[in-house]
Amino acid sequence: MVDSAGQTQTGHVRRSNEDSYLLRGPLFLVADGMGGAAAGEIASRIAAEAFAEVDLIRMQGTDALQNAIKVANARIQERAAGDPELAGMGTTAIAALAGQDGRVAFGHVGDSRAYLLRDGELRRLTEDHSLVAELVAGGQLSEEEAAGHPQRSVITRALGAEPTVRVDTFVLDPAPGDVVLLCSDGLNTMVSDARIAELLAAEEPAERIVNRLIRAALEGGGEDNVTAIVFRLDETDDAPTGSVRTILTTDPDLEPDDDEDDGGPSMRKVLGWALVLVLIVTLAAAAAVWELRRSYFVGADQTTGHVVVYQGLPWNLFAGVNLYHEVYVSPVLYAALDPQTRQHLFDHSRRSYSSARDAVKQIELAGP
């Protein structure tokens, strides 16, 4: 490893930053917390602290990552059990560990991601543990539909959700010049893969690349907390070094300079397009208003984890504006359903209230 850097930003919509990240020499982590209020921030910080304690002399590879995730999961559960206000908190985790054998181990839970840029080609190394990912895998959504889906933030695996957690682990045999990106979904939902690849390919220090990635997410809307870690791999005899940095607050001075042009859209252009978008969305919303009162669909509340019947249309507009609201919250947790039931129930087809309520009632009567 020859260069590494990480940054986090609250974004334009969220009031607080629930992301945490860790830079510890050969060990890197991005954790995206959830649970409302300060609970998500606490959960992600607990995960970062657990990874900071990994004994890198005695533990290597996927075993080290599995152990850290196990410890973090237990601590989050224990903390939530002792404080009713923290009930239901959890966090994603995407971690990478560059080993003494030259290989890079990865551990993954949730929808934070790992990317690899090799020979100019961007490859996504992880599969999202999310509701829309299951729908895409089942052929019910396209990748383009999933990108704008109102339930795209609902994840099906998280640290703290259950006493045990399934972890995806794998090992990368790196090639000289590889660039690895770890990020929360606040980056990849705001910045296209093509733009990410362009920024990662720049012949610049990792710190500069991370800065540009964060700013691209802000210019793209900044609708969520955004965190990114970038590290480069090359042939070297030098042992990687670094200190622990667990960052939970907004990093300053990440807004783009007015006189700087890095190939991305200027703020003036972004604002211009935003005004056009507002006009288009307003007209579309007016045409759809008559549908709102008679349309219902079944979804999942990403904060509480419960199955929900929504009234309205399954569309998100901009700045957190939705065309739907909850009308019935089921006691059933979506994470307790098998994948086939989730795919059938959460297809987000428009229904009558009685049809939507009957679909939910069937799973309630079936029990665990």
Please describe what this structure looks like.
The protein has two domains: 3-249, Phosphatase 2c, domain 1; 292-366, no CATH class. 33% of the residues lie in helices and 25% in strands. 43% of the residues are buried. The radius of gyration is 21 Å and the shape is globular. Helix 1 (39-52) packs antiparallel against helix 2 (61-81). The chain has 368 residues and is of the alpha+beta class. A hairpin with a 5-residue loop joins strand 13 (296-300) and strand 14.
Task: Give the SSE layout.
Blueprint: E1 3-9, E2 19-24, E3 27-34, H1 39-52, H2 61-81, E4 90-91, E5 93-98, E6 104-109, E7 113-118, E8 121-124, H3 131-137, H4 143-147, E9 168-172, E10 179-183, H5 185-188, H6 193-200, H7 206-219, E11 226-232, E12 245-247, H8 267-292, E13 296-300, E14 306-316, E15 322-333, H9 339-345, H10 353-366
Antiparallel strand pairs: 1-11, 2-3, 2-12, 3-4, 3-5, 5-6, 6-9, 7-8, 7-10, 10-11, 13-14, 14-15
What would a concise description of this structure say?
With 368 residues, the protein is of the alpha+beta class. It has helices at residues 39-52, 61-81, 131-137, 143-147, 185-188, 193-200, 206-219, 267-292, 339-345, 353-366; strands at residues 3-9, 19-24, 27-34, 90-91, 93-98, 104-109, 113-118, 121-124, 168-172, 179-183, 226-232, 245-247, 296-300, 306-316, 322-333.
